[in-house]
Amino acid sequence: MNITRNNVDALNAVVTIEVAKADFAPQVEKALKNYQKNANIPGFRKGAVPMSLVKKQYEKGVMLDEVNRLLQENLNKYLQEEKLDILGNPIPVTSDVNWDADSFSFDFELGLAPEFNVDLAAKNDVTFFKIVADDKMLNEQVERIQKQYGKLKSEETYKAGFDVTGTFTNEAEEINNTVTINPSEFADKKAAKKFEGAKVGDVVTINTKGLFNDDHQLMDVLKVNHDKVHGLDIDVDFTISEITSSEPAELNQELFDKLFGEGNVTSVEQVKEKIKEDAEKQFAQQADQKYLNDVTTSLVENTKFDLPAAFLKKWIQTVGETPLTPEQAEEEFARSEKGLRYQLIEGKVMSENNLQLTFDELKAYTSELIKKQMAQFGQLNPTDADVDGIVARVMSNQEEVKRLSEQVMGEKMLNLYKEKVKTKTKEVSYEQFIKETYGE
Prior knowledge:
Blueprint (H helix, E strand, L loop, with lengths): L1 E6 L4 E9 H18 L12 H32 L3 E7 L10 E10 L14 E6 L2 H14 L2 E4 L8 E8 L4 E7 L7 H5 L9 E5 L7 H8 L3 H4 L5 E13 L5 H8 L7 H35 L6 H11 L6 H27 L6 H18 L7 H11 L3 H23 L3 E6 H9 L2
Parallel strand pairs: 5-11
Antiparallel strand pairs: 1-2, 2-4, 3-4, 6-10, 7-8, 7-10, 9-10
Main location: cytoplasm
Subcellular location: Cytoplasm
Protein name: Trigger factor
């Protein structure tokens, strides 16, 4: 058997494998003898079928199986030995085979991974947003707490400041969502006035355009997606099912103890500090995710290299359960190209910075995750044996191991980017962060 490679260009190659009959004849002979022993052919006793008849019926199929096995084994071995970094899988070049010949030649097209450099320190426009809980947010949270723990009273008729529970509907837009709202908070004061004097069972029709200062609030109350909500200008019906007023809870020690445990907080200032601390922990996760997304986008846009596009489109046609047309493959390639580029960039970054994941790291990460989850259910001091038992069960699940591995490696990549990517830091409120994120 002989294997040669012809590099068509930097991104494409053709591997030729020459197979002689002698390479697979013993295996074919052995398989045919097994067929002869077990064949059930009318007119012959089992095991007494003439070899000429067995060969006529089975030889070509057996040869095909053996040749395919040899090709697969030796092609994979060749790719490993040559350390070829390929994209997709080798594509066999179809040709007529003369099975009566003494040797055969088979060609395989390869798409080669491009050579390129990733400059993490290059100038870019990535910003890391440090989200702070500003006074406006803290005051709103304190008011929300007072309202949540205040005394609720059912009312017959709506007045400004009351809450109303009901269902927003619009059949054409398939909107049907039950919420509790405070019409006094509408930016559109004409819409708020429509609720004055309304009673349980009444239907109030309002327009969505400009209902809130921030369309994301409209997205929440109507349960419509982000793309649809911006500029949404429709009438919606609100059927009132309940009207309530609230007497705010006093900001006293009794409330503080109920919220944070006895004696842990003794003033409104400390309440705000606790709210700020918890909120900014959550904000940090969102800021990190946006930063990771923005660095990814920047690297894909600024790291230039070519791909073996023609090869990949041809491969995409054959890789699924159902073959695709050239037009469908073109569309699929367009959808997946950025993801493929980032996979190559990510692999390069991991290799050049020796980012690796050990079993002990994964186990420790899983253990901490489980402890946090147990704490949420009141198990603050689980035994090591309990935690280790859950870790063992989790890590016996390959899907979970894959998911957790991606999370740990994601954190490693994030920390590396924070260290090496030139980044501007911008301090913003959460409201400003939402506008920066969604461009609104």
